[in-house]
Design a protein that fits this description.
single chain, mainly alpha, about 70% helix, about 0% strand, elongated
Length: about 325
């Protein structure tokens, strides 16, 4: 009897000693996901921090332009402010970056011009990612005749020169608003996302977890949304982030050529087009909106490079 009592008393003690060790080992050895590793790397990347700060300022400027200036971007004063030189000591005032050929504040037009450029970039990127992602996912997963049909359709649209095709589409509209320009860019810009998604889905659909889901009787929709999409979307995010800057640049180019946005819309491309005639006697009219386009595009390219480095295991 004493031996039995002693044995039963020592068993809980042994379990109590083993439990903390096994629990600590489990917490220490808990595997991290790709997204948690990527976020940890992004926070330590100065390239990501710098680009994220620039984009955050741009988004705040887009949503709340009155925080940066109280000057109207459309009110001109030809008599008193025609091509007036910048007053660099008056930061954030209407005179800070000078005035254009219509006597309008360049700083105010830069602030309010961010809205059109950002809306076009975000809307086009979201639309091409959604449409191109669906096309690429269906083509890559089902294969066969559907893959051949969607791939040939993608090749047809990819064979159309991007800017030339957008010019042809936009010239058929009398009024070219933000949504018209965005639609023209979406029609021709979804092919790259579709190709990237198709290749990523083809590499994922042969994975063991997909085969296991099929063996357990999971439906096609559940497999695509719960198993393939989370593992195939990383390259698409990288391409879409870099492409966003390209769409902003395309909008500015089309507006510069006179077939994109037009007055009364405030756009950096319109200001660059208007400033080219004043390049010799007032270069600031052209320089500042062109510099704003370059900084914005560079910020999104830097962000895309940082995201690519964080999501690509081969670059770790």
């Amino acid at each position: 009897m004493p031996e039995a009592t002693e044995g039963t008393a020592t068993l809980p003690a042994a379990e109590e000693q083993a439990a903390p060790k096994s629990q600590g080992k489990s917490n220490a050895g808990k595997p991290r996901s790709l997204w948690s590793d990527a976020w940890r790397d992004l926070r330590r990347n100065p390239l990501f921090v710098a680009s994220a700060v620039l984009i955050l300022v741009l988004l705040v400027m887009t949503c709340f332009p009155s925080l940066f200036t109280d000057t109207s971007p459309r009110d001109g004063n030809l008599q008193g402010a025609f091509l007036k030189d910048p007053q660099y000591g008056k930061v954030f005032s209407g005179e800070w970056l000078g005035y254009d050929g219509q006597g309008r504040s360049i700083w105010a037009r830069l602030v309010y011009g961010a809205r059109a450029s950002v809306i076009v970039g975000v809307v086009v990127t979201a639309a091409v990612t959604l449409f191109g992602g669906v096309v690429g996912m269906l083509a890559g997963y089902f294969g066969g005749w559907l893959d051949s049909l969607l791939s040939r359709l993608t090749d047809i649209f990819a064979g159309i020169p991007f800017l030339l095709g957008a010019m042809v589409v936009l010239t058929s509209f009398d009024v070219r608003s933000v949504w018209v320009v965005s639609s023209a860019l979406v029609i021709l810009g979804w092919t790259q996302i579709a190709r990237v998604m198709r290749g990523s889905v083809i590499s994922c659909k042969q994975a063991d977890y997909v085969m296991a889901a099929k063996a357990l009787g999971a439906g096609t929709g559940r497999i695509l949304l719960r198993h393939i999409l989370p593992n195939a979307v990383a390259p698409v995010i990288v391409v879409a982030t870099v492409a966003l800057g390209g769409y902003i640049s395309a909008e500015a180019t089309l507006s510069y050529l006179g077939i994109g946005l037009a007055d009364p819309v405030v756009s950096w491309g319109i200001d660059v087009s208007a400033g080219k005639d004043q390049l010799r006697n007032a270069p600031h009219v052209l320089l500042f909106p062109a510099l704003m386009v370059s900084i914005t595009v560079l910020a999104f390219i830097m962000l895309g490079d940082a995201v690519r480095n964080a999501l690509d295991p081969k670059l770790r």
